[in-house]
Amino acid sequence: VVFAVGGGGVRSNLHDAEALRVEGTPGEGLGSSWEPRGFVSEARHAVAACATGDWGIYLIGGWGDGDSCTGAADALILDDAFSFADDFSVFGDSKADPRSLKGGRGWVPSDADLKSRWRSLPPLSTPRKLHAAAGLRDGRLFAFGGRTSDDPNVGPTDSAETFRVPSMSDDGSRGVGSSSSSASSHAWKPVSPLPAGGACACACVDDADRRADAVYVLTWGASSGGSTKAVPTTRSKANRIDKRARKAGEAARLAALARGATEDVAVAEGNAARAAAHAAEEKKEIGVARSGAEVGGLWRYDADDDTYAFLADLPLQEWYGFTAAAFEGWVYAIGGSTKGRWTGAAFRFPVGGGGKGDAGDGEWE
After folding, report:
1. What per-residue confidence (pLDDT) applies to 287?
2. Which residue has the higher pLDDT, 94 or 326?
3. Is 307 exposed, middle or buried, given 0-12, 13-18 or 19+ CB atoms closer than 10 A?
4. Distance of CA 94 to CAs 57, 61, 71, 74, Å?
5. CB-based contacts of 68: which residues, under 8 Å, 6+ apart?
6. Which residues make beta-bridge pairs with 309?
7. Rounded to whole angstroms, how far apart are CA atoms 21 and 25?
8. 162 contacts 140 by C-beta, under 8 angstroms
9. Rounded to the nearest 5°, which phi and psi values hold at 274?
């Protein structure tokens, strides 16, 4: 099933969502036409969307009606047997309410729109647009890079963050991967920033990947002709940087506990310190200028280790605004613009088994 959610940006932005089934015989079920699939509370464009396997669809961040980025995040759960009711009680009534819609110039949902109910998740800690978003089957969501302002003097951010959606465990019980039920445990938390500096980006996950924690992040920008390989690509160098960052994060967590902070607050401070230390160590050891030109490339983010591995330069020397998808061992990059012109170009890169997808292996085709 293909979903289209939000968008706009000319006269106004959109609240609503549509879905089209692309399997089976045309004319059966959703295959005959696009059908309404609810609406989100805040209309916006320049958003990022992702899925957690086959059970959740998400709309994250974007540019709202007005002059600022939004941190809004919304979820549509596709399994009718799954309920947010208990797990999301800390957010209050988080369903999109037609009486409190933001933006969209007075759009009013139809009866069909009311049949599917999106839920509002906690907002991003850094509102952003033109960023990447990805979801893993276990309910982890990620947002990478993007712009935080329309000011031409403000470059894109290198920051990244994560949120865990309540999900089913293997035994059928519900949980969020934490014993805490406080609202502070249901918040976006920082992870390691993009390794080559600030950039707009897109991201994807291959559900067939043997690495269940792998997210493929494609940064928009100018390929460096190989100089991005100065960014940590070997496991030993990445481990050395991460070890130092983890040590700094743990020190910050213990310091927070020592002054009487709660475990949730201490963990959040530790994660922030770890991300800052990771960026500082990377710049010191490798000499990457984090505030310089936007560097385009393909990276594999290890969600469990919170590290990036450089896989390849982009196949076009300057490439912006393209989208990405992954399927059965390949990452696909499609569309966008290059050297000031729109392009219909499409490429794919091998990231599947057999050793392919490691730094330095594989080529775009």
Report:
1. 44
2. 326
3. buried
4. 16, 17, 15, 9
5. 127, 149
6. 300
7. 10
8. yes
9. -65, -45
